[in-house]
C-alpha cells in the first residue's frame, strides 16, 4: 500500500511539473502605442563592440550552403565577417560599412565592392547598413516614430501593426491585390524584445519575415542567439544564423587587406 502511495505521489509531482512547463504568461493589458514603442526602444541590444562565433545555412532557389565563421561589429560603423564552408578553410571575408559592401573571395582571389542598392536589387528588398545591423542584433528594423501603428495582443504577445487584425484579413482576402505595406512586429510582453517582424506587399508579391529565438542575457542585454530570416518574392531566400561565444564591449580589429594579386571587380 505504501508503495502505491509513493508511486501516486511521484506521478502527481511529475504531472504538476509538466503543467508548469506548459504554462504561458497570459497578457491582459497592453500599453498605449507610444509607451510600447518607448519600452521596445529602451530594450534594444546596445553596445559599442560585439564579437561572436556564427554558424548557419543559406538557402535560395538554387543553393543550400552551410557555413561557419566569426562576426565582429563596431556599432553604427562596421560589420566584419569571416566565413568558411565548414572545412576549416576561410572561404572569404565580408566587410559592411555605411556606404558599401566589400567581399574578398579567398578561393578565387577576387575582391568585390557593391552598393546597398545593388544588394537590394539582388534580394528584391530595400536594405541598408542600419537595417542589417538591426537584424543581427535583434533590434526593430522599422522606424516607428515616423508612422502610425496599432497595438494589439497576438497569441499572448504584444504587437505593433500598420493595420489591425480585421483590416489585415480584409486586405489579404481582397482579390484585387493592394499596393499597401503590411507591417507586424511582435514583442515579448516581459522583456519587450522583438521576437518577430513581418513585412508584406501583395501587389509586388513580397514578404520579409524575421524570427528571433533563444535569448541569452549578456551584460544586462538580451541577445537572440538564433535568427531565422526568409524572403519571399521572385527569389526565395532563407538565412538561418546561430551565435555562440558572444563577447561585448571589447575593442576589436577588422582586418581586411586586399592582396595585390587579387582581381578587383566593382
Chart the SSEs and their pairings.
Layout lengths: L1 H21 L10 H10 L6 E11 L4 E11 L3 E7 L7 E5 L3 E6 L4 E6 H8 L5 H9 L12 E5 L2 E5 L3 H9 L7 E7 L6 E8 L4 E13 L2 E12 L3 E13 L14 E3 L1
CATH class: Mainly Beta
The percentage helix is 10-25%
Beta fraction: 35-45%
Radius of gyration: 22 Å
Total count of strands: 14
Which strand order do you get reading across the main beta sheet? 7-8-9-10-11-12-13-1-2-3-4-5-6-14
The name of the CATH architecture is: Clam
Topology as H/E string? HHEEEEEEHHEEHEEEEEE
Distance between the termini: 82 Å
Structural class: alpha+beta
- Low-pLDDT stretches are 3-23
Shape: globular
Count of domains: 1
The biggest beta sheet is recorded as:
14 strands, mixed
User: CATH H-level name... which superfamily?
Assistant: Lipoprotein localisation LolA/LolB/LppX
What is CATH's topology name? Answer: outer membrane lipoprotein receptor (LolB), chain A
Q: How many helix segments?
A: 5
Mind explaining what this structure looks like?
The structure is a single chain. By secondary structure, this protein is α+β, with helices and mostly antiparallel strands. The protein has a single domain, classed as Lipoprotein localisation LolA/LolB/LppX (outer membrane lipoprotein receptor (LolB), chain A). It is built from 5 helices and 14 strands. It has helices spanning 2-22, 33-42, 116-123, 129-137, 165-173; strands spanning 49-59, 64-74, 78-84, 92-96, 100-105, 110-115, 150-154, 157-161, 181-187, 194-201, 206-218, 221-232, 236-248, 263-265. A 14-stranded mixed β-sheet has the order 7-8-9-10-11-12-13-1-2-3-4-5-6-14, with helices on one face. β7 and β8 (157-161) form a beta hairpin. The termini are far apart. The model is unreliable at 3-23 (pLDDT under 50).
